[in-house]
Design brief:
Layout (H helix, E strand, L loop, with lengths): L5 E2 L5 E2 L6 H4 L1 H19 L7 H7 L3 H16 L5 H9 L11 E5 L7 H4 L7 E5 L7 H12 L5 E7 L3 H8 L11 H11 L3 H19 L1 H8 L4 E7 L6 E3 L2
Parallel strand pairs: 3-4, 3-5, 5-6
Antiparallel strand pairs: 1-2, 6-7
Helix pairs in contact: 2-7, 8-9, 9-10, 10-11
């Protein structure tokens, strides 16, 4: 949990989380993300001993990773989930020493978006990062860089969803308690672009955040350039459970 007094990417201590302009600038996001990722890679290293099934996941192509997610979503919407049986099997095996998720998801923290269920994926398949409004802040970029550079996930999906409270609150721009309004600055470009239509603004936000991941991180950009990673935006309809690519 972040305290009211926190140290941001510029190295200074501020009285309110997010109060430093440098923390939220493109340069600040890049600098903080690079520093955090360097620490993660240095601390854990890039060589991980993986079981056979996990190695198979790391050998997937970006397109195959995205297709596996969409196939799982189809099973989810049809009520034909297979991941529960896999979960039970994995819980009986030794799964604590390594992970090799084939894809990462930047999702909203909304409790109506159970990411692994939505894509019918079992333990160890998806590297899920969640924050209200599925926004690409420095800390989230660092986590996704770790997923790509160290865990070798082949795709990153920024997943917006229906009736998103964070986007709706940004559209309304009303006074809110605590630090909730710090979310607005990251979502505001989508509202400026799409207007007050909640669905349009939510989709625009997912696309903008996906674009930020592509352009603000040298780690992710390098993986994309080598054909090792794809970053896409998608929209989850909470009413019918379907995920639609919107990039």
């Amino acid at each position: 949990m972040a305290s009211l007094h926190s140290i941001c990417g510029c190295g200074a201590v501020h009285g309110e989380l997010g109060s430093c302009p440098e923390r939220w600038s493109r340069r600040g996001v890049l600098r903080s993300g690079a520093m955090l990722t360097a620490g993660l890679i240095a601390g854990w290293g890039t060589e991980i001993a993986l079981p056979k099934t996990a190695r198979a996941q790391t050998q997937m192509t970006p397109d195959a990773a995205l297709q596996a997610m969409m196939d799982g979503n189809k099973r989810f919407t049809q009520g034909q989930l297979t991941s529960f049986n896999d979960d039970l099997k994995l819980l009986k095996e030794k799964t604590t020493e390594s992970q090799a998720p084939f894809a990462s998801v930047l999702s909203c923290a909304d409790s109506r978006v159970p990411v692994e269920l939505v894509f019918d994926q079992t333990i160890g398949h998806l590297f899920v990062c969640r924050v209200a409004g599925n926004i690409a802040t420095a800390d989230l970029i660092a986590s996704l860089e770790y997923g790509a550079a160290v865990l070798h996930s082949k795709a990153i999906m920024v997943l917006g969803h229906g009736n998103c409270g964070a986007v709706d609150a940004t559209i309304k721009a009303q006074a809110v308690p605590g630090q909730i309004s710090t979310l607005y600055r990251s979502i505001r470009p989508a509202v400026d672009q799409a207007g007050k239509d909640l669905v349009a603004a939510t989709k625009a936000n997912a696309k903008i955040q996906a674009g930020l991941l592509r352009t603000s991180s040298p780690v992710l950009a390098d993986a994309i350039g080598k054909g090792q990673l794809k970053i896409v935006a998608a929209y989850y309809d909470v009413a019918n459970g379907a995920v639609t690519m919107i990039d």
